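[Automated response] Your request has been received and processed.

Submitted sequence:
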Amino acid sequence: MQSYEEGLTTIRTLLLFCCLLLLSACTLGAVQEEGYIISKSDSEIWVVPATEKEMEEKGFEELAEAYGGEGTFFNISKLDSRRQEKLKEGQNVIVYYNGDKATSAPAQAGAIKVKIVDCVCSKKPVFEGVIALKWTEQAHQILVINKISGEMLENGTREEIMDIASQEGNGMIFYVSERKFKELEVGQKVSVTHQGMAQESLPPKTGAERIEILDE
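Generated structure:
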């Protein structure tokens, strides 16, 4: 006769086996699609069949224009919240779905599971700092400074802040989209992924590919 401890062990083993069966059933018979995420909202990711070279050389807005109605918008609302948070623009992913797609351009489907293969964005330069200024002169721009005091950020003149940003490696000006420009505020700490090729100016200027707010 099994002891109480042996019985518990058997039950745990059976439960683990059932969980594994359920997990495998989620993707059993599912269709998969591989590509790169070039856009993400709270409930969707846009996955396109871009190449790694394209991802390294082009910004997300440029890719969105190039691929237009291609790829698929995958609804991710049914995924675990932690998995949703891990998904970012620039990631190479494999998306599992039940095969049903809305006939639109881009197509639309519901994601059952998303596997992250790689992230081209991690191979690109990243600049972290505080948004010190934002303005629009032909294009939407933000100034991000790595080291600046709270007093200078709040009370410094534009010229004084620009002088601090012009110190080697301490500041960069980024071109951003109108939508992102409206979302960002002076004083926010951000991480900016960019191509690295900057205009020869002080501070240097380049286009932002992805901006992550590190704190509010």
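Summary generated for your ticket: The first strand starts at residue 31 and ends at 40. Residues 16-27 have pLDDT under 50 and may be disordered.
If you did not submit this request, please reply to this message.
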